[in-house]
Specification:
There is one protein chain. It contains four helices and six strands, in the order E-H-E-E-E-E-H-E-H-H. Helices cover about 50% and strands about 25% of the residues. A hairpin with a 2-residue loop joins strand 2 and strand 3.
Length: about 180
């Protein structure tokens, strides 16, 4: 896509926290289990969500084709992470910081897949043309079909990543064990 053909955009990244309590790694992890964000049938340590809106311009061409001439995303990525509500003993604080850094790295990987999905949508959308579409209806069907495919791919990447990270010997499992078995 020519650089002049689209506006540069940057995602907005926000961090939301939820309060947990405890004075040991085990207590902190137990609090996460009680207060973490709801997901599926239970609670999770952290999660990444996003809000995505678009500015698109559909233009009917002289030959009655419809073309997308502007496809500019507005992306907000929200990382929800645990935060101890009180001061921690020094040894627990160090263990907590290591745990949280690993959790943040995991969540930022999810954020990167979201950004990549948006870049793929932008690349597909900009310049998309549907022949014989003076009402710009066919182009929307084509666009929505591809958006569904890209979104499904991004969600599957996240599920596959989580399965490895949280499985036996995975990074998140290792982080949890170090936190719970530490001070």
């Amino acid at each position: 896509m020519p650089a002049a053909a689209h506006a540069d955009w940057q995602p907005v990244e926000q961090i939301k926290t939820y309060a947990i309590s405890g004075r040991t790694g085990a207590e902190l992890y137990q609090s996460i289990g009680e207060r973490g964000p709801a997901a599926g049938n239970g609670r999770v340590i952290a999660h990444t969500t996003f809000k995505l809106t678009w500015t698109r311009k559909y233009e009917v061409q002289p030959d009655n084709a419809c073309k997308i001439t502007v496809a500019r995303p507005k992306l907000i990525i929200i990382y929800t992470l645990p935060k101890p509500s009180g001061d921690l003993p020094l040894a627990v604080k160090a263990s907590w910081q290591s745990f949280l850094a690993g959790v943040e790295m995991h969540e930022h990987w999810h954020g990167e897949t979201i950004k990549e999905m948006v870049r793929e949508i932008e690349a597909f959308s900009f310049g998309l043309t549907a022949a014989d579409d003076p009402q710009c209806k066919k182009i929307r069907v084509t666009l929505q079909q591809r958006l569904g495919e890209l979104s499904g791919h991004q969600r599957q990447q996240g599920r596959d990543f989580d399965k490895v990270e949280m499985g036996d010997g995975g990074n998140v499992q290792t982080l949890i064990l170090k936190l719970v078995n530490g001070p």
